[in-house]
Design goal:
About 55% of the residues lie in helices and about 0% in strands. The chain has about 240 residues and is an all-alpha fold. The protein folds into three domains: about 70 residues; about 70 residues; about 70 residues, no CATH class.
Length: about 240
């Protein structure tokens, strides 16, 4: 039973001990072995070494996001710093395992909290129900996520101008296309020809989506009236710090 994702959880005390060990340079495996001994065996510790690694990785990412937010506030004070919803969902898969499988009730409820409420009171009620229903009130990762809700929850972003873009997939899609046309074995003429082809393709995709938009009812829903900023990747709008 202790191996099941639904039965694993890093408590606040355990998270503090992991942080202390990491701060003084103790290897993660040594930390895990010590805490396993203290708990009387692996079936009593409540999490795996992979869970500990994911916890530290998530915390580093949060620290990076905090540093980015601080830099943006100093250099571009009027800029809104939001979290990529696609990466948020990917981190959820790492921390919550089977609960994050596509089509699960948890994923549906989590996405509703992310996209479905303009009113913060309704969001708070839905979030509380989510934690209670799936017995996740002590989940460390969800606590971290909730503490930065102003960066991902729709109800907290009503005054942010985002053009509907909630993930970094658009920029990554463009970066990937540019990378493919600027390979080191190409001369400058070939690079520019390939680049022009990429631009032409992107413009055509945009024109096609503009034409199809009035007829595409899948872009809207009763509980989510946001529009995906990545027109060429519209089917990915629900997946995503």
């Amino acid at each position: 039973m202790h191996m099941l994702s639904s039965q694993r959880n890093i408590t606040d005390i355990q998270a503090h001990e992991i942080d202390l060990a990491n701060d003084v340079g103790i290897m993660q495996k040594s930390t895990f072995n010590l805490m396993t001994r203290q708990a009387g065996g692996r079936d009593g510790i409540g999490y795996t070494i992979l869970d500990a690694k994911n916890y530290l990785r998530s915390k580093r990412q949060t620290s990076m996001d905090q540093a980015m937010a601080k830099a943006l506030n100093e250099v571009m004070p009027d800029t809104f710093h939001g979290l990529c919803t696609w990466h948020l969902m990917q981190n959820g898969i790492k921390h919550l395992g089977n609960l994050m499988k596509e089509g699960s009730c948890f994923v549906t409820d989590f996405k509703r909290c992310m996209y479905g409420f303009e009113d913060e009171t309704q969001f708070e009620e839905a979030w509380g129900t989510l934690l209670s229903e799936f017995k996740l009130r002590d989940n460390t990762w969800l606590k971290h996520v909730y503490n930065v809700k102003e960066k991902w929850a729709r109800c907290c972003m009503n005054n942010a101008f985002t053009l509907g873009m909630r993930s970094t997939q658009l920029s990554k899609s463009v970066n990937s296309s540019i990378k493919n046309c600027t390979k080191p074995n190409l001369n400058i003429e070939q690079i520019f020809k390939n680049f022009e082809q990429v631009v032409e393709e992107k413009r055509y995709n945009e024109l096609q989506r503009d034409f199809e938009a009035p007829f595409d009812q899948t872009m809207f829903s009763a509980d989510r009236t946001y529009f995906s900023g990545d027109a060429s990747n519209a089917d990915n709008r629900d997946r995503d710090y």
